[in-house]
Amino acid sequence: MKRIKKILFLVGLLIIPILLTSCEVDKIESFNVSYKEDASHYLNEGEELDLNLFNFTVNYKDGTKKVLEEYEHYLVKHNYKTNLKFNHEETENEVVFEVTFKYKRVASNVIAINIVKDEVREVSIQEYGKVDYIYGEEFDASGFKLFVRYYNKPNQIIDLDVSMLAMESKYVKPASAGAYTVAIFYHGVEANAPLTLTVDKAEQVLLEKDVKVMNISSYEIELKELSNALYKFYPEGANPDNFEWQVSPSYTHDEPITTKMNVLVKLAETLQFKESNIISLEGIDVSPYHLKPIFVHKSDTAITFRNPNNGYQVVLIDPFDYDIDGKYVEPTITQDNYAVFSGLLPNHSYLFALKKIDSDKVYEVNRLGEPIKTNQTTNPLTYIENQTYVYNNQERPFQYNKKENYKNIDVNVVYKLNGEVVETPIDVGLYDVEVTTNASDKVFLGTLKIVKRDLTITVNNKEKIYLDADPIFDLNKDFTFSSQLVSNKNSFSIITSREEGEQTGTYILNAEITNPNYNIRVVPGILTIKKKDIDIELNNIEKLYYDKVNLEDIKFDIDFPLIENHDNEFIVLSANLFGNPIDENGNLVSSNIGTYNNVVSAKITNRNYNVVVRNSDLVVAKRPIVLNIHHHQKVYGDPNIPIAEYSLSE
């Protein structure tokens, strides 16, 4: 019971001030803070805030005020921090910190305080601690003191911290053992003298469990690779002093290793570490590791081995009659890790061996003793037994396909036409076919039929001029009759002919063409005989003044030979006089007497000629006339009268 009362008493002590504070907060209007007269507005870096520098005034809502006494300062809270971090590399020497005070949860106005950073003038080592180390040992800062001179505060003696040292970590790890000079920095100022440490090389210990053989083959011994290790391989019984240390953990030989080998291993001395102890491995025996291909399976076109996966590969060598380039053939590696040699010939023998992947040489110790022979096959081809083709003026071999696994086999095809062997079918006919392969003794039989090809040949159209000789008649064909033909049966019998006639017009051109390999259809051509160009000069026309010129007056002479039984009629279609058409009644000659050059023109036509007409002249002569004067009368004594009436003859 007493314990319960004690707890209730303590709770009351906590709750009653809170309740009293809560009641007073509701009465406060504001909380004002100001610097006391002559109080400094500056604090040094890391300096505590002194509340005696300020006046604290509480303003209540009823208009009263209260100035806090010094003993009441514990009721004032603020956000000032003494552990402000300065960047001593920058040039600014102070920062402004805005401080807010609180009294019973009521915040004050903001007070600006200028924080002045420490300005270090000089740093030096006052006292020394441990200066001798082994490489990699942790630095011990105890015992070291620094004397620091300031511009803006009294001098200090401070402890050295490892963060002041220009080292990458707290461990002493110089580039090399010996004297190790380390700069000291405090607030951006380097000490006037560095710290010099003496660093000895660290010990290295090589453990037997770390030295182990990782791989052995006919040509190589490989140890576990260790950092900074040196290896010395030498034959068993030899003096190791006669052999050199090497960096590589592998011993390789161009030819298979035939003796047992020893190896020494040590960690080499470095700038930071001493040379380690030496571990020896003796009597490494390589002879059990002379590998040969492990045969798994064979078919008619493939032989399969296990893939060694140890720096070796199975290769096909001395392939007898298997035609390859180079010294060996590499296999295809399957997903389940088998080495497969595919594309081999059925019923053929092949020899295999192992070789190093990085070498082209194959050694006897890695060869199989006997070759491996592939199985026979009896169905390596696909084909249509009876094949028919249209003659195409080319060789027509029997078509077959080698199955995917038999691409390398040899195939021989024999053709017979009417019981006689022919080299390759070309001409129309029915051929018996016999197909054999080097993969089996089976003979595959079939037929190959070549049928006539439909061929359309067009006789080319031709033209000539009337009375000219006929042009050479030729054909429009889809091949050359001579140069592209491969068979003596490709000679064509060609007879050309044309419709009779020599006058202008069109005449059919035809041809008779035969060939044993073609069904030939001839499309006739057309021979067009065009008119011949000639010149005809019109005869001059002579007329009396006021006569008429008629079409019958248009005359001309033919001064070239005409062909008997041809159309030799030249018809005047029209004529002009002085550019005016001469009509059926004739044109009156009303021009003055004289000769008019080139005023008579005409159009003349003929079936076989294009007539070019040369104009002629019109000659106008005087026309004789009779003047009849009519009788006139006058009275005697009158003057003479003019002859006013007369008439002309027609």
Secondary-structure topology with pairs:
Layout lengths: L1 H24 L2 E8 L6 E3 L9 E7 L4 E3 L8 E3 L15 E10 L2 E11 L3 E8 L4 E3 L10 E6 L5 E4 L18 E5 L2 E2 L2 E2 L4 E6 L12 E4 L3 E4 L5 E7 L14 E3 L8 E7 L10 E7 L10 E4 L4 E4 L5 E6 L10 E2 L2 E2 L4 E4 L7 E8 L15 E2 L7 E3 L2 E5 L9 E3 L8 E7 L2 E3 L6 E9 L6 E8 L1 E7 L2 E4 L9 E2 L16 E6 L6 E10 L3 E6 L1 E6 L1 E6 L3 E4 L3 E2 L21 E7 L2 E2 L5 E2 L5 E12 L3 E6 L1 E6 L5 E3 L16 E3 L2
Parallel strand pairs: 2-7, 9-15, 31-36, 37-42, 38-43, 44-51, 45-52
Antiparallel strand pairs: 1-3, 3-4, 5-6, 6-7, 8-10, 10-11, 12-15, 13-14, 16-17, 17-19, 18-20, 20-21, 22-23, 23-27, 24-25, 24-28, 26-27, 28-29, 30-32, 33-34, 33-35, 35-36, 37-39, 40-41, 41-43, 46-49, 47-48, 47-50, 50-52, 53-54
